[in-house]
Design goal:
With 131 residues, this protein is an alpha+beta fold. It has 2 domains: 1-40; 43-131, Roll (SH3 type barrels). Helix content is 34%, strand content 18%. The chain has 5 helices and 5 strands, in the order H-H-H-H-E-E-E-E-E-H. Strands 4-3-2-1-5 form a 5-stranded antiparallel β-sheet. Helix 1 (3-9) crosses helix 3 (24-38). The longest helix has 15 residues, at 24-38. The termini are far apart.
């Protein structure tokens, strides 16, 4: 039995005390793995798109603007960083969903009527959050 499986069986109050004593990065990784283990299905595009994530391995942060569902359930998300202070849009990258932590930032949505080429860039800029 690994740590995540053990945490899934521990009563919630004890689990919170155990997680509170862990280093922040380890805690985030355990919480994410626990959520993934307890979910009945892999993440869907509707759940991922428009949310801001951090890659637990590299620390890369960005808004999910694309989603690939794989037959093997190794889904990937395209993370697009925010427009920098210099006004330039940095390159985004693909990441496995299991490496990502939702940062809990307000979800970015694009109304269907305004969905057009360049709408993602305009939505990222309108969110006004620098990289």
């Amino acid at each position: 039995m690994n740590l995540v499986e053990w945490l899934a069986m521990v009563p919630r109050d004890l689990r919170e005390r155990v997680l509170a004593g862990m280093l922040p990065r380890l805690r985030a990784e355990c919480e994410q793995a626990l959520n993934h283990l307890q979910s009945d299905h892999p993440m869907t595009a509707d759940q991922a798109l428009g949310r801001t994530y951090r890659d637990n391995v590299t620390g890369f942060e960005g808004l999910c603007t694309a989603f690939i569902a794989s037959l093997t359930a190794c889904n990937q998300l395209w993370l697009q960083p925010r427009i920098g202070a210099d006004g330039k849009l940095p390159d985004g990258h693909w990441f496995d969903e299991t490496r990502l932590m939702d940062l809990g930032v307000e979800r970015v949505t694009i109304p269907a009527a305004s969905a057009s080429p360049g709408a993602e860039t305009r939505a990222i800029a309108a969110a006004g959050r620098p990289t």
